[in-house]
Amino acid sequence: MDWSMPLPTLSIDTATEVLALALGEGDRILAKSSIDAGRSHLELLLPGVQSLLEGAGFTVRDIDAIVAGTGPGTFSGLRVGIATARALAQSLEIRLSGFSTLEALALGLAGVSPAELVLPIIDAKRSQVFARLYKKEGKNTVRAESDVLCLDPRELLEELAKITGGKVGAAGNGVLAYRDIFVSAGQLEPLEPDHPGNRVDACWHLRADRAEASAVYNPGRLLSVVPQYVREPDADKTILLRKKEPWLQ
Fold first, then answer.
1. Residues with Cβ < 8 Å from 246, sequence gap 6 or more?
2. Domain 9-100+200-244 falls under CATH 3.50.50.60
3. In terms of pTM, does the model score above 0.85?
4. Cα–Cα distance between 31 and 218 in angstroms, integer?
5. What is the rounded distance in angstroms from the CA atom of residue 52 to the CA atom of residue 30?
6. Tens digit of pLDDT for each residue in 52-94?
7. What are the angstrom distances between the C-alpha of 233 and each of 98, 159, 224?
8. Which of 7, 193, 195, 242 is the most exposed place for a label (fewest CB within 10 A)?
9. β-pairing, 168-171 with 28-36?
């Protein structure tokens, strides 16, 4: 390893069924992967990280910082990703940042949708979706135009109609799960089902670390990176988990 070169940042997102990983140095993307993990993030995350690093010629000791996707998304997936990111950052004594999964989807969508407003939508299960409206603002930049919403797909369309009457670009696994509803309403311009913009791309997360490139490792900040649940997790065992891990708030 040439220690005169910048060391890479690792980004991890496990908020959806996709295990998204990326490795970058500054503005340079060194490697990325997108794995259909389903409910197997726990089993696949560390092997996926190792494979990504080895493929780019690095080891885990070479990582300079970590960015974790904060959701919203599935409780178990988010918990696995953020807990792993925290453990790695603590053991390696490197900085840890968080980045919104919805914003990552919005940034990817903004680059391919002709609409000025974009709506990333994540399947929240229980017949609901997580979503947030964003407006394009310059190159590779978006600005939030709404709060993070957790609604029934039809309720989301009603809420959207209150905010804007124009066409809105849409993408994400939430669009795929309720595509018939969203297409028939005529308010959204969703990406095609097989478009890669429907999947979380962890490359966007790397920008969160660029803003803190001069920061040093601070163990007290590890607890500041927490999942964005929006609603209460599905499992009753969450209460017991919070007693053991107070950071799960």
1. none
2. no
3. yes
4. 27
5. 9
6. 999 999 999 999 999 999 999 999 999 999 999 999 999 999 9
7. 20, 23, 19
8. 193
9. unpaired
